[in-house]
Inverse folding.
């Protein structure tokens, strides 16, 4: 009886989790423009339409540029914050951690309003710099946390050993700490890239029609008219996410042997 | 213990240098924008700056006020006049025409109350003067008054006499967040349980499904639901094919669609913390309880379930906080009666260009979220203290 409850509830919940995406994604290859089954033949024409339409291609390019810029800026902010934090006292660490992590709690709509207004006054609204900076604030907490976790996991004796051999603080950081914490930096970079690449709400407030990112274009498309091209874009976005999940899993496997 | 803590002086200097950049970025690009939302919600904008003569005039002397109003009008550029008229019109409809008509003729109006009444008889009515006086200050509570439906009457008493539409929306936001949290927890629990306790193959499969779902963007998963639930969509095609219904059922742009899509999108945020807690519970405990004569249900309810409550709390809390401020999924799958606070914030910015109201509602949303975070922190602290004593 209890086994039956376990199996039925697990299977139903699993179906709810998996089936919607599994059902919708094949419609990207549908021969007709109806978004339902049965499919009328296999076709790549919607892919062709996405890859040849200027708007989608431009949005994809914008997303890529913004995500790469965000990765760089968020790595610097999060990396400096995490390494600096490790050198401060206990109470300051608690306060600063709260500050550096807090953008994760603030609803993105509030951050969107804040940036839309402030960037408007600074003359940054609609610009590439505005998008990169706003996404960097959203991504920095994730970079900060993943680097902080890997720095805290390091064996402090290694640092002491290097110091006893006469290495200066800078040398120890470059030759001991940084190589050991590299997986944390890499994971932070992956988090930053996906955060920016998938972000909708803040970009909706900050982007202009010229600097539209892919998710914003998809959001606008969904509000406008449902077409198979939207499924194609959704499929491409999820393939990119899966690639990043795979990279992340590889990274964890690389990192694993170092842990005692 | 790192070398830095042994040499505190040098360590602190390096920490200061390293932290300067992130602290400056956070201050200028995060704290200041959030702060500007707070000040915008109280800022009286064009009104506060433009009605300076009115502010200085004696509120009891009607003629002095009339003269001050005319002086203020004459000091404004036509563009500013239009902006002030628009903002006054948000307070009381009909004010735009009254203000612009009077302002245009202001050079020829005698600077007394009688002169204004000759120009337009509406100036004889006290309600217009009340609006003008209330909005002459540089700081205003009117956005919060409109958001909460509270009104300040002439004697300065606060009464709940206003339009309570935004209070209703806040209530609806809380109700939807509670509904979504409950459904999410109900569906997450068996999945988290399966990852922690099912046979290895099934556990691995569920874990991969959860992680794939977690990494797929919220917008992509919402897209799937929009396509599934539309009138001519998969679910309706299936229902008609099986003969369960004769014509398409409305599944989207209502509460059902919003809750189904939001639940699906937020599932991983509940599953992951629950799963992490369940993995730490030794299997031998339930075995021990069974060997002592408890049935499977009793073992689960009295031995296993109470230990998972911490994970349920963290997962449920995360989902609730995310649901409160959710924008894209309810905006794409809910109907007009299912829109949450975030929708109206975006609407005020994008369509009505009313920054004051958008900011006031943002501040209220942020306050709700911060209050909840503080509450969760308190509960965790209290339970950790109790756990330490036991």
């Amino acid at each position: 009886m209890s086994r039956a409850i376990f199996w039925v509830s697990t299977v139903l919940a699993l179906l709810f989790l998996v089936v919607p995406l599994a059902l919708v994604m094949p419609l990207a290859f549908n021969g007709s423009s109806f978004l339902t089954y049965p499919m009328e033949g296999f076709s790549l024409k919607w892919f062709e339409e996405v890859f040849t339409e200027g708007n989608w291609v431009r949005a994809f390019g914008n997303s890529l540029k913004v995500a790469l810029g965000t990765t760089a800026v968020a790595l610097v902010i999060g990396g400096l914050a995490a390494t600096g934090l490790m050198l401060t006292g206990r109470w300051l660490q608690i306060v600063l951690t709260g500050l550096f992590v807090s953008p994760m709690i603030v609803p993105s709509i509030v951050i969107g309003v804040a940036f839309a207004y402030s960037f408007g006054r600074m003359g940054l609204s609609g610009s590439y710099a505005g998008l990169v900076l706003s996404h960097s604030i959203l991504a920095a907490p994730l970079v900060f946390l993943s680097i902080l976790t890997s720095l805290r996991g390091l064996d402090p004796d290694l640092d002491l050993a290097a110091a006893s051999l006469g290495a200066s603080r800078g040398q120890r950081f470059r030759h001991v700490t940084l190589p050991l914490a590299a997986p944390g930096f890499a994971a932070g970079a992956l988090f930053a890239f996906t955060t920016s690449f998938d972000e909708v709400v803040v970009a909706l407030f900050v982007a202009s029609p010229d600097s539209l990112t892919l998710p914003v274009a998809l959001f606008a498309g969904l509000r406008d008219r449902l077409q198979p091209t939207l499924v194609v874009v959704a499929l491409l976005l999820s393939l990119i996410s899966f690639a990043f999940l795979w990279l992340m899993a590889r990274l964890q496997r690389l990192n694993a042997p170092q842990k005692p | 213990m790192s070398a830095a803590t042994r040499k505190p002086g040098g360590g602190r200097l390096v920490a200061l240098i390293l932290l300067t950049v992130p602290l400056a970025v956070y201050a200028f690009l995060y704290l200041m924008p959030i702060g500007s939302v707070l000040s915008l919600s109280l800022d009286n904008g064009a009104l506060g700056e433009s009605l300076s003569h009115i502010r200085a005039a004696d509120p009891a002397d009607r003629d002095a006020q009339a003269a001050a109003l005319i002086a203020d009008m004459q000091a404004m550029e036509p563009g500013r006049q239009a902006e002030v008229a628009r903002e006054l019109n948000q307070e009381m409809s009909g004010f735009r025409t009254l203000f612009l008509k009077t302002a245009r003729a202001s050079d020829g109006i005698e600077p007394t109350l009688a002169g204004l009444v000759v120009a337009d008889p509406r100036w004889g009515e006290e309600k217009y003067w009340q609006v003008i006086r209330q909005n002459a200050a540089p700081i205003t509570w009117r956005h919060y008054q409109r958001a909460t439906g509270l009104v300040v009457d002439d004697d300065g008493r606060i009464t709940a006499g206003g339009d309570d539409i935004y209070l209703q929306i806040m209530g609806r936001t809380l109700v939807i967040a509670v509904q979504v949290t409950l459904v999410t927890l109900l569906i997450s629990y068996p999945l988290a349980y399966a990852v922690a306790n099912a046979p290895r193959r099934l556990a691995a499969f569920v874990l991969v499904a959860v992680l794939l779902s977690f990494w797929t963007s919220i917008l992509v998963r919402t897209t799937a639901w929009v396509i599934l639930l539309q009138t001519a969509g998969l679910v309706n095609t299936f229902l008609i094919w099986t003969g369960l219904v004769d014509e398409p059922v409305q599944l989207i742009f209502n509460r059902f669609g919003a809750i189904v899509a939001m639940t699906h999108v937020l599932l991983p945020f509940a599953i992951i913390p629950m799963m992490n807690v369940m993995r730490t519970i030794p299997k031998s405990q339930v075995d021990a309880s069974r060997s002592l004569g408890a049935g499977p249900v009793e073992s689960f309810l009295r031995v296993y379930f109470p230990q998972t409550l911490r994970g349920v709390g963290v997962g449920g809390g995360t989902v609730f906080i995310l649901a409160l401020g959710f924008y894209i999924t309810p905006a794409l799958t809910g109907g007009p009666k299912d829109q949450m606070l975030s929708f109206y914030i975006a609407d005020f910015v994008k369509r009505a260009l009313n920054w004051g109201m958008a900011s006031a509602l943002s501040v209220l949303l942020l306050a709700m979220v911060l209050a909840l975070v503080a509450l969760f922190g308190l509960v965790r602290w209290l339970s950790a203290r109790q756990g330490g004593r036991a």
